[in-house]
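Quick start: read one record
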Amino acid sequence: MNRNKEQYKRMVKFIFSVIVLSLEMAVFWYIWISFYNQKMETPYNRSGHWLMVAVYGIFLMLFNTLYGGLKVGYLRTGNMIYSQFLAAVCANLMAYLQITLLTKSFQDILPLFVMTGAELMLIGIWSFLSTRLYRLLYPPRSVLLIYGEHPVAGLMGKIHTRNDRFVIGEIVHISQGISFIKDKIQGYEGVVICDLPSHMRNVILKYCYEKGIRTYTTPKISDVIIRSAESLHLFDTPLLLSRNNGLSFDQRVVKRVMDLALSMTALLFFAPVFIITAAAIKLYDGGPVFYLQERCTKDGKVFRICKFRSMVVDAEREGKWVPATDRDPRITPVGRIIRATRMDELPQILNILKGDMSIVGPRPERVEHVELYTRQIPEFGYRMKVKGGLTGYAQVYGKYNTTAYDKLKLDLMYIQNYSLLLDIEIIFKTVKILFMKESTEGFGTEDAAAMSEGYKAGKEE
């Protein structure tokens, strides 16, 4: 890839973003002037119209930042349309609230529905054309994948799903030597470094830095910890401080206040959904509405998580644990619906009110999972430095069947970089993944059987 052209990438993305935001703001301008401005006691003049459009533009940028709708070249076309549409819907809701306050009464919402439809059409056309043009300007990078002792089939499969960004030109094992690898690197636009010993990884990273070749590195646990470290300059040798204590006292207090406020609001808002879902489960087979299960939260404390029952009664007979698969016959028809929409998770609001869980945090795992994963990954317990959550970093950026090691790294990224703003961002992004099928994807039958056998073998040791 031409490195001279590479320097203009940010500018190209900025121009694309300005185009779509300008189109959406123009649609709002028309709807505001044609339908809502005259509803005010004193209609705005030209400067007032500019102000309304500017505020709407701020809403669009805010929600597009949260949902990543402007990430041309990063998201697939369908994902970008979905993200942009969610951002537009949220911005339109905020605009309607603003209009209601200005006109001092609830106005006809139909023009905003029409505006949302027009925006969706513009977003679709823009996403398709911008993605096509971006890929013409910046075709997929040819990369060299360097790996160590661990298999890379899983990572290769994930890279192949994004052939719009990467093309693996060659795979090299570290046993072939640093000199051989350095010669190979020269013929590629990027290097993927997968689970190399630290000393060899450092050599390759420094070499690529010297030559101006970008690198993509799968992080180790220690990398996640160091990445969040605080810089100290007590003397002329820089220090990196990692506190490693989870959340501070003030962070825990603010987080608990937010948990109580949002969970009580959600309980009132979703009361009709609770009633309808409970009735559907009871009417289907007459079994219990709720399903209680032991999970691990902060410091390994065990509590009973509450969920709507989505499987047949006695799905785990004789205490035998079998993870859910993609087409698990134990899941009832009602269960398939509530699992797909995540409604089975709603009763956990009660766990949040009780203090067992938080709204945002690492997903509390079953006791059996913790025992199995800890045998395989001794660091798995690190994720229990904070309370388990209804949603979390690993739920937003991972899948239901993401590997335990990858979930651990994602959860540590959350713990080490915690902030109230990060919690708010995750809550908004959770709305996005609710209707994304891949985020609810279950374990394959072979994976589920392997996990179950692994737990059984561990108990027999």
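Residues 440-461 have pLDDT under 50 and may be disordered.
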